[in-house]
Amino acid sequence: MGRQRRVTDLVTVYVVQGLLRANVIRGALESAGIPVVLKYESVGPVIGITVNGLGRVEVQVPAEWESEARDLLNAEPRTGEIFSVPPDVTKD
User: Fold this and answer.
1) Is 45 within a domain?
2) 29 in Cβ contact with 36 (< 8 Å)
3) Could you tell me what percentage of the chain is helix, strand and coil, using 3-state DSSP and rounding each to the nearest 5?
4) Whole-structure pTM value
5) How confident is the model over 10-57, as pLDDT tens digits?
6) Cα–Cα distance between 57 and 25 in angstroms, integer?
7) Is 91 a domain residue?
8) Per residue in 68-89, pLDDT tens?
9) What is the CATH number of the domain that holds 14?
10) How far does CA 58 lie from the centroid of its chain?
């Protein structure tokens, strides 16, 4: 059997209200290859209340990924050619 590595040193890199926002952040980090754990009170999603801390979600990553995660989350939004359709695709 293969060994499984147990992650014990998690660092909170972002805090949001609600799982929807947390999953957007999680998706961005995971698409960059950064493992993510969401930490939240289990009653929040069941009841659907996001006040007084019940909707608080901590986005956590292993300590060795903290720098990369923070860099990604603090990066300026990209605009311009990277999101444009390449010219050769629109030619007939």
Assistant:
1) yes
2) yes
3) 40, 20, 40
4) 0.70
5) 999 999 988 889 999 999 999 999 999 999 887 665 666 666 667 889
6) 11
7) no
8) 999 999 987 766 655 555 555 4
9) 3.30.70.1530
10) 10
